[in-house]
């Protein structure tokens, strides 16, 4: 088990990838980190593959309390939890913000994040399959999206 906890940075308080490929798997806890964008995880001009991770109680000053996916980036998440992440009012994507990138979620739970669960801006894409999102609203999805076999409440 990997624990990434109590860190701070401008981009990706817990973990950040830029111009590279990052794999997080095997019951990883990314908890209690702080950043301007991507309190738990920031993906900038790269790819992050996240499997069986818990992205919990991270804080972003701007966007993506749990995770932030920037332009020309990809985040692939499977069987992971994004919960109780926090952002400032007026920002977007408490659990996950995709801003010009691509997001793929399979078998994930997005629960009780402030300022919405998932935000996907224009020029982005989002695919969700077999996911659960509740305890907030899915807000501001203005991009290409495909949600299949999910429970959103």
Characterize the structure shown.
- The protein is mainly beta and 153 residues long.
- Helices cover 0% and strands 55% of the residues.
- It is built from no helices and 22 strands.
- It has strands spanning 2-5, 8-11, 15-18, 21-24, 28-31, 34-37, 41-44, 47-51, 53-56, 59-63, 67-69, 74-78, 81-83, 86-87, 96-98, 102-106, 109-111, 118-120, 125-129, 132-134, 144-148, 151-152.
- A seven-stranded parallel sheet has the order 1-5-9-13-17-20-22, with no helix packed on it. A six-stranded parallel sheet has the order 4-8-12-16-19-21, with no helix packed on it.
- It is globular and about 35 Å long.
- The mean pLDDT is 89.
Give the helix tally: 0
SS-based structural class? mainly beta
Radius of gyration using CA atoms only: 13 Å
Beta-strand portion reads: over 45%
Largest sheet: 7 strands, parallel
Question: Terminal Cα separation, in Å?
Answer: 31 Å
Q: What's the total count of β strands?
A: 22
Overall 3D form: globular
* Overall pLDDT score: 89
SSE order, as H and E? EEEEEEEEEEEEEEEEEEEEEE
Name the strands of the widest sheet in spatial order.
Answer: 1-5-9-13-17-20-22
Low-pLDDT residue intervals, each spanning 5 or more residues? none
The percentage helix is under 10%
Which properties best describe this structure?
153 residues; mainly beta; 7-stranded parallel sheet
């Amino acid at each position: 088990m990997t624990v990434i906890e109590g860190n701070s940075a401008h981009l990706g308080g817990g973990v950040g990838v830029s111009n590279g490929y990052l794999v997080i798997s095997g019951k990883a806890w990314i908890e209690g980190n702080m950043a301007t964008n991507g309190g738990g995880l920031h993906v900038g001009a790269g790819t992050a593959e996240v499997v069986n991770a818990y992205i919990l109680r991270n804080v972003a000053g701007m966007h993506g309390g749990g995770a932030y996916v920037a332009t020309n980036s990809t985040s692939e998440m499977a069987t992971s939890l994004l919960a109780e992440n926090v952002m400032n009012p007026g920002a977007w994507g408490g659990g996950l913000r995709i801003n010009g990138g691509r997001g793929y979620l399979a078998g994930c739970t997005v629960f009780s994040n402030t300022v919405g669960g998932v935000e996907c801006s224009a020029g982005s894409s989002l695919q969700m399959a077999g996911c659960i999102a509740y305890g907030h609203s899915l807000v501001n999805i203005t991009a290409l999206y495909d949600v299949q076999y999910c429970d959103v409440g």
